[in-house]
Design goal:
Strands 1, 2, 3, 4 and 5 form a five-stranded antiparallel β-sheet that branches. With 239 residues, the chain is α+β, with helices and mostly antiparallel strands. The protein is built from seven helices and five strands, in the order αααααααβββββ.
Length: 239
């Protein structure tokens, strides 16, 4: 019986090895057509990195850039800045200077980005989000915002801010200083904002009231750089 058992054991082991080798020859091969491992985040909208362009001018090179120059030259001064600046005004001349320094400049595209940047900066300041602010502000403006946030944190104050709307964003000045294009934008917005102390008491603003806010912000960009980002370089309260 011992000999019979040994023979059957050897037969089954040999069969198992044979089956294993056959499966390995089929399943272990890569044909280059296999699906990649499942990524549960692949189908989602990727998060915007902190360094993503906020007020961005699209890059155009070669044929596209030349086409943009030809199109700009073909447009009459009366039509070039329609809805943004009146022809013959200092603002129109300033926008012409920006376009001459950067042939990819589009005023309406800039304003779309500026509105987004305005909301992001106000929200990031209220939340004390230094990482977002660092990528949106010039060094000087960032230092001012950072100092105000630090003082607020020392007191234990908390700001709650919510945008109701940005009613209007208009370019009020445009100029080129050396390699820097600078555009000033006047924002009219509605905001709900309240500041509470560490005890939770309201010390500024009203959580139930909508406030009309006017801000005048200046954005700048190095037109000689490949970096398309515009950064906030100056702020002031508007009238």
């Amino acid at each position: 019986m011992q000999d019979v058992f040994d023979i059957y054991t050897i037969i089954f082991l040999a069969l198992a090895v044979f089956i294993f080798l056959r499966l390995r020859s089929v399943l272990g091969q890569r044909t280059g057509r296999e699906r990649p491992p499942y990524d549960p985040y692949a189908a989602r909208e990727p998060a915007r990195p902190a360094t993503d362009n906020v007020v961005q001018i699209p890059n155009r090179t070669g044929e596209n850039a030349a086409k943009k120059v030809d199109e700009a030259a073909a447009v009459s001064p009366a039509e070039r800045w329609k809805g943004v600046a009146e022809p013959g005004t200092p603002l129109a001349a300033g926008l012409d200077a920006v376009l001459a320094a950067d042939n990819t400049f589009d005023a309406n595209h800039f304003l779309t980005g500026a509105r987004a940047a305005y909301e992001m900066i106000v929200t990031a300041y209220a939340e004390g989000d230094r990482r977002s602010l660092r990528n949106l502000l010039s060094r000087e403006v960032y230092d001012g915002f950072d100092g105000a946030i630090t003082e607020r944190e020392k007191r234990g104050d908390v700001v709650e801010s919510r945008f109701v709307s940005i009613d209007k964003a208009t370019i009020t000045n445009a100029e080129v200083r050396g390699r820097s294009a600078q555009l000033t934008v006047r924002f009219l917005s509605k905001l709900v904002s309240v500041t509470r102390n560490k005890a939770g008491e309201v010390i500024d603003g009203n959580a139930e009231s909508v406030t009309d806010v006017t801000d005048v912000w200046t954005f700048a960009r190095d037109v000689a750089s490949r970096d398309p980002n515009w950064k906030l370089v100056a702020t002031e309260a508007g009238q």
